[in-house]
Amino acid sequence: MREIPSLKKTDTDRVATYQSRIKKPLNGDRIAKAVDNEKRVRLHTVGTQDSSTSFEQWLETIAKILPKNKFETFRLLIGEPVPTLTLSETIFDELAKIFESSNPAQKLTFESDNERQTNEFKNYFDVDRFFKEDVYEQLKLAPNSFLVVDVKEGLTQGKPSPTPYFVNIEAVIDASVNRDGSTNYLIFRVDEKTVVAIDDEAYYVFDSINEDYELREGYPSVHNLKDRLDRPYTPAFLIYPNFLNATDTIVVNSPLTKNLGSMEWLLFWSVSKRYLDLYAPFPIYVSYEEDCTYEQAGRICNNGILVSTSDDLEEAASVIPCPKCSENRMFGAGTEVTVPAPQTKDEPNLIDAINVIPASKDSIEYVTNEKVRLEQEIYYSILGKTSQPIESFSQSVSQLDLSTESRKAVLLHMKGIFERVQNKVTYTMARLMFGEEFIDSYVNYGDNYFLTTSEQETKNFKALKDAGAPEGMLHSNLERIIATTYKTVPYTALLNQIYLEVEPYQTMSIENVTKLVGVNMIPKKRALAKIHFTDFIEDFEAQHSALVKMIQLGETDKDKAVQTIKEQLSKYVETIATEIEKDYKQQLEKDEAQMDMVASKQNKDQQMPDIAKPSSVAKRNMPSRAKE
Fold first, then answer.
1. Rounded to an integer, what is the distance from CA 215 to the centroid of its chain?
2. Which of 381, 589, 609, 621 has the fewest Cβ atoms within 10 angstroms?
3. How far apart are CA 15 and CA 12, in angstroms?
4. Which of 295, 302, 334, 343 is nearest to 319 (CA)?
């Protein structure tokens, strides 16, 4: 359990410092900026119109752009969640590939009994799941949050029970943060009456009493945490220490932050598209206007405005629009618009009795294209260029390799941030739980990502093969097809990768192999191995199920597994070759016997008198040699 010592002078100085900073924080302005930034992010990742997002601020900007009557309709069409939520979810789904690498690695190191203590820690708390689900979700909704590691009351199997929890930036009063996301101190509000401070020595709890903050009895609570270099540190970390500039260590640059302006503009165009859809697809009918006859309480309509008909009736304090005229809005199916009719014969007649303005297809296309352009611009800006199926070998570097490298660079940057924070949290929790028995932790998400689909890779393979790409490139493409096809079942992917290593002529079709063996271009037994490889795999898996299971579970060395399967394939091919040779000899003997029978028949025919020889009809049905 934590040590609760009497206050030393240094403790007293820190308590006084934190009591002062609760009232006058050093970094209050930067924290307020971070809160505003986070609200702008939440507008697109939560999609609500409440005070937790910047919806009202965005709406105020739109109100300055649109006329009042247009703005009222625009406001009704926004809906909830806002339209940009879909794009945000798509982006974060792609970024979640940082957790899907095929070569992750991590290790916990203890002074003794490493395996037992590692399993004990993992059974106590699944840090991998916590970061993949909880921390990643927090990044979407509250990217400026902190992660604090504390110890719960009570013991778990005789050991302290460390637990991580989030502190949202709205709750933070003051903080001193380093470039790597570690903190020198963190002060935050738990509720209206309670404030917590954490630094590299202890946890402090303050109670609000008569507008002052007094240290709660039993605190500070010392944690005695030291890093790998034996330096004390604070068990509180930013969840995503990626900052907007080189001097700011408070405001986080989340995946969406640098595109927030574009996201807000996209939101405007998305709603504008809905507005346009109300009237642009429909023709507008134009006719001459008739005088409005609306009358109410001594007021009549005059050009859409109600005016008094009596000098005794006081004019309204504000303009009253005519309810009947107000119903004529310029949208919807069958909209009708009226224009003044000529008053004299000398005035031009600009329209027929009824004129039709066709639907505005150009406007619809422009708004739709602009919306799509903005979506693609934001998507590519955040994720890098996406890979499309290549059409020729010459495109393989420029289109496939460079596009995947662009996307991979984004993932590598993000996974590096997550790795460092997860490593800090893992190290801290294990240190609090096991004390000095725990030595170190290592976390690596890996770097082998699935950035294309199996369908894309299959199309790429066909294009490369048709273009005459080298075997090495084709083989690599086959490996990617297997990896993307079985990305959710890595053990099956491993087994198929081993089969790929064993199969002869992996990139050639059976038809081409048959042609080549027919002209003695390749060995017959290797051709047999290719032709019968699928049958061999079925036979091998049926007879060696235990070995297959070991391969799938990674319990046997890959190279050893390849060698074993190659030996089994060689035996299988020998059996087939022996059977083929046996069948060939039997067929040859059968053909020779048939030829002997034909020859014997011919000798008998030559010794027959003419009257005993077969008729011409029967002769036509004999083998050719019997006719001679």
1. 46
2. 609
3. 5
4. 302
